[in-house]
Design goal:
The structure is a single chain. By secondary structure, the chain is of the alpha/beta class. The strands form six sheets. It has an eight-stranded parallel β-sheet. It has a six-stranded antiparallel β-sheet with strand order 13-14-15-22-19-20, covered by helices on one side. The protein starts with a helix and ends with a strand.
């Protein structure tokens, strides 16, 4: 019997079949499927608080997300950005800063989950985060196991201090680590669009940043010397040519919202409307504990949010420009369309649009807006009033740096 076993092993070796070499192991570099089927909605700490985060703040923000009505409007993620980190232990496992998060992340996750919300966390593909805390380079699988153990639901993964790394490979590694950890976690790729992630990230992440950081300005650029922050309109311009890459489960991310951080309400309304038109993730970045009614009204306008969250998942596009007034279109499920007139001027401008003279075919969805053959009921999403119809041309004076946002639905016969 022993002689027969020796002969069998000799034959197997001669055929080139590996025994005990681990060659049957294949890494899964793909994201969890079935997540972020509409653009993620939630809150992130960075825009308002930067590194000044602790568990008391996060708990109060979670409370405010609920009491303000934002949770019921669709915002579910509470995302802690940079600077939550403490040290790694002797085995390399990361721990939160003990002074800032004395109860630990698992207890904080449990609190957030008890509110009907989800916890997001932040790390970096490099050796250090942008804020100088421990990055995940070399610890990807340990960190993913830790996040899963804590009950994390969302990971924003940044790109500072990544000398020598190639973005696609680095993000495949963290995607594999999250998959191995066994907890479905949304992966937010944040390498600022440097390597055109829209061309490679569809099966790796659920959303990817398309630009550098936003800052609280409607139409300007902040120059830091070696890098720049971008105003709302500058970021909007950078979305041109990217819409064909977005869809359910894989979204272009033009960065977080600045609504409530100092813009006047007209600019905030335009900012929010345009993010909804381009099917952007709606991640608020203001202090939810101290929102005024105008900010709350913008962030919780359900009719506008519905444009962003439309299940067809088609990103809108700029159709035309006339006298600095832009016309944007977004196909909707059920044959409807969102139409947004954006006035970027410093003064009010009149817009006129004759529905009967325009037959529009969307190059991505192949859907057609044809008011000659179909009558559409028009609803103004920022104003209450009786619906109009595409039987008559649309005319409106649009205030400076503001929008008119309409929903067109086929009229019932």
């Amino acid at each position: 019997m022993k002689k027969l076993l020796t002969i069998i092993l000799f034959v197997i070796a001669g055929t080139g079949i590996s025994v005990g070499q681990g060659n049957n192991y294949v890494q899964d570099y793909t994201k969890y499927q079935g997540l972020a089927l509409t653009p993620p909605m939630g809150w992130n700490s960075w825009n308002k608080f930067a590194c000044n985060v602790d568990e008391e703040l996060i708990r109060k923000i979670a409370d405010a997300l609920v009491s303000s009505g934002m949770r019921d409007a669709g915002y579910v993620y509470i995302n802690i950005d940079d600077c939550w980190h403490g040290d790694r232990d002797s085995l390399g496992f990361i721990h939160p800063d003990k002074k800032r998060f004395p109860s630990g992340m698992k207890a904080l996750a449990d609190y957030i989950h008890s509110k009907g919300l989800k916890l997001g966390i932040y790390s970096d593909a490099g050796s250090q985060t942008c804020g100088g805390r421990p990055g995940s380079r070399g610890y990807e699988f340990q960190d993913a196991q830790t996040y899963a153990k804590w009950g994390v639901d969302y990971l924003k993964y940044d790109w500072c201090n990544t000398e020598g790394l190639q973005a696609e490979g680095a993000y495949k590694t963290i995607a594999a680590a999250l998959k191995k950890a066994g907890r479905p976690i949304v992966l937010s790729i944040c390498e600022w669009g440097s390597s055109k992630p829209w061309t490679w990230a569809k099966n790796i992440g659920h959303l990817w940043r398309t630009t550098g950081d936003i800052y609280n300005c409607f139409d300007c650029i902040e120059d830091h010397g070696t890098w720049k922050s971008w105003g709302v309109m500058q970021i909007l311009e950078k979305q041109d040519g990217l819409r064909q890459y977005a869809g359910p489960g894989h979204w272009n991310d033009p960065d977080m919202l600045e609504v409530g951080n100092g813009m006047p309400v007209n600019e905030a309304r335009a900012h929010f409307s345009m993010w909804c038109m381009i099917a952007a993730p709606l991640i608020a970045g203001n202090d939810l504990r101290n929102m005024n009614e105008e900010t709350k009204a913008v962030l919780t306008r359900r009719e506008v949010i519905a444009i962003d969250q439309d299940s067809l998942g088609v990103q809108g596009y700029r159709y035309s420009v006339k006298d600095s007034v832009e016309t944007w279109l977004k196909p909707l499920k059920g044959g409807g369309w969102a139409v947004c007139f954006l006035n970027r001027n410093a003064s009010a401008k009149e817009v006129s649009f004759d529905w009967q003279k325009e037959v529009i075919t969307d190059s991505v969805s192949k859907l057609v807006l044809n008011a000659k053959s179909t009558t559409y009921a028009i609803t103004d999403l920022w104003k209450t009033g009786k619906p109009a119809s595409t039987k008559k041309p649309f005319k409106r004076l649009i205030p400076s740096r503001d929008v008119v946002l309409l929903r067109l639905m086929p009229a019932k016969k």
